[in-house]
Amino acid sequence: MWFASPADVRERLSAVDYLSDASIATSVFLAGALGKPLLAEGPAGVGKTQLAKAVAAATGAQLVRLQCYEGLDEARALYEWNYKKQLLRIQAGSDRDWDATHDDIFTEEFLLERPLLRAIRSEVPTVLLIDEIDKADVEVEGLLLEILSDYQVTIPELGTISAVRKPYVVLTSNATRELSEALKRRCLYLHLEYPTPERERDIVLAQVPTIEAGLAEQLARTVATMRTLELKKAPSIAETIDWANTLLALGRTELDEATIGATLGVVLKHASDQTRARKELAL
Amino acid sequence: MSLLDRHIGFVHALREAGLPVSLAEGLDAARALQVIDLSERDSLRAAYASTLVKRPSHRPGFDVLFDLWFPASTSGLYDPRQEGGSHAPDLDLEAAPLPELRDRLARLLLGAEGMNEFARAMVERFGRQPAGPGRQNWFSYSVMRALSPETLMARLLAEVLAGQERGGLAEKVARQRINENTRRFEEAVSTDVRRRIAEDSGIERIARSAVRPPLEQLDFLRITKADLARLRREVHPLARRLAARLTVKHRLGHRGRLDFRRTVRASLSSGGVPLNTFNKPRRPHKPELVVLCDTSDSVASFAHFTLLLTYALREQFTKVRAFGFVDTVDEITRFFVPGADVVEAMTRLTQEADMVRFGRTNYGHALEEFAERYGDAIGPKTSLLILGDARSNYQPPALETLRRLSAGARHAYWLNPEPTAQWDTGDSLATAYGGIVPMHECRNVAQLAAFIEELA
Ligand SMILES: Nc1ncnc2c1ncn2[C@@H]1O[C@H](COP(=O)(O)OP(=O)(O)OP(=O)(O)O)[C@@H](O)[C@H]1O
Ligand SMILES: [Mg+2]
């Protein structure tokens, strides 16, 4: 049992400084209660990765992370034989017969465990974070589908390994490509968007405890206004937090036009976005 | 209605509205209902959403239907004084004079609690219109006309800004908040109006007319300005995918071809045993893209969308050149310099580019002009993408010219925003052009995405 109820999720996540809302809390609860993977999708910096970390921290589980990238393959995601070590063993035992050597080198000792296998074999409660799945090639989804349906892995030389206890699985995606229908069907879906100004203010207060509530509120509202502009890259929660830290470091307590103008680079990373914001917000 | 009936009816309505809810997902939702507290409506909504809705574009339709099948209140059962009471004990929403109601709305637009209860009471008071003996109709507009939230803006701004300078950031921020809350109020009113219509004449009837098709199924030729703004966000992922599809990868295993020399060289240090193998990096070949886009009025919203796509494509290709035409052609690449502002680029483009001679679309002339002036843009590495409805006002088509252009390119594709059934009717040259450059119906984002997926 991961969580007792959505309310329990809210409480325990906020104890590790992750502020949720009804939809986050309910999906996180259901993923545990129904034993289904949770797919969190949304723009950069809205707390997808942090959500998985927070679930692990709140439940005292081990976090195993598979970072996806273009070209990620089974050998990096699941397991690989330690070819180097095997060669050395073959050389060292060159007088022994091949069958014995073969049995010898396809054993645990020569197995390189990768995140998926590690999560499946883990004996302690584990949160498996499959981060940025949209960056991986489509074939990786096939592999995940297999593993996420029965939580077991067959290694031809070793046999089938089944999960001792099902990991809590979180997949994240920036939606740079459409994930396969099959994978989506298997998962619970959580669309993470930019938070309401009220929740963002609370996030800032949680992450930057020394900031004044009034300033946090101003920050949240200003960022919300910026997000309505037609920008290349809208500011994320991560940027709001950076901004809060910057203002503290500069000793500012008010967010007036001059202050915003001087620190705009912290929230808006593209020159064209900065130009646009200066114009639209009359900075 | 029992919970089971309600569940089944709701899932059915979602499917009717175009959401692809599978049997397994329906069962997931049913299992979810067994473990959550059904009296918590937010949780119930979230439980359904996370099991059944797997695309953000399906969410608005889902919410409309959820509010119909699981209404927040039932007429007759609900007592406005009791529910609204916690927020404004002194105000009798059924009898209070209009100015007091507007005061209350003003508070709500600044963020006070109790928006939904207030909206329900206002629909009760202002939304009803008699429709024949014993029958009534419900309308949002009569509620909005009575309370007129937009006329509260000036007063609210004056109050919030209290002496601060006007026109600056503070005003922007305040406006944004008030507009957002006004939108929420309108939504709450519409939701309650739909609920009452459903009570009077059945959920199914209203459900069908209340749900707009999801964004990716909206017809390009009938798109509104607001839709375009939303579509803008869809464009970047599409562009990335299109680029990935047109990029020829050397797919020799995931890690590329074995680098034999490096492997052998490295093995010398381990007595000739290749302990480490080296692979050549995969070297994707980035194609060049030429986009030729009909920008005439008949396809204006499609053109707008494809120009957005072109803009996004610039980031994905080593070289993109874009050309727009009505009856003559102009290179419009310059409006899309990296880092340029999309909105500005679009405005400048329509004002400054020279794409019109007499004003009526002429594909033949545009193609010939293109071949003559920019023919060298196309080479063996180029993908040529033509976007337009192939309607040429009965002018000579210049098929030979198109044949030459397409033969010189690596690939050529034509995307046509008209339904296939209308091709070749009237002045459409779809089949004639489509015989030279493969033509695909591309009426909405879903079809564009499908086209991209099929490219290989
Ligand atoms: N709900 C939240 N409560 C507290 N902090 C949050 C919350 N959401 C986001 N944050 C903060 O925002 C930062 C960025 O979040 P995170 O890295 O998880 O984003 P992401 O969605 O994974 O982005 P990317 O797509 O770029 O990986 C986190 O480090 C955290 O500090
Ligand atoms: Mg992340």
UniProtKB/TrEMBL annotation, chain A:
Pfam families noted in UniProt: AAA_5
InterPro entries noted in UniProt: AAA+_ATPase, ATPase_dyneun-rel_AAA, CbbQ/NirQ/NorQ/GpvN, P-loop_NTPase
Domain AAA+ ATPase intervals: 34-198
SUPFAM superfamilies: P-loop containing nucleoside triphosphate hydrolases
Molecular-function GO terms, alphabetical: ATP binding; ATP hydrolysis activity
Name the UniProt record assigns to this protein: MoxR-like ATPase
Species whose genome carries this gene: Streptosporangium subroseum
UniProtKB/TrEMBL annotation, chain B:
Pfam families: VWA_CoxE
InterPro entries assigned to the protein according to its UniProt record, in alphabetical order: UCP010256 (IPR011195), Uncharacterised_CoxE (IPR008912), vWFA_dom_sf (IPR036465)
SUPFAM superfamilies: vWA-like
Alphabetized PANTHER family for the sequence: BLL5662 PROTEIN-RELATED (PTHR39338), BLR6139 PROTEIN (PTHR39338:SF5)
Name recorded for this polypeptide: VWA domain containing CoxE-like protein
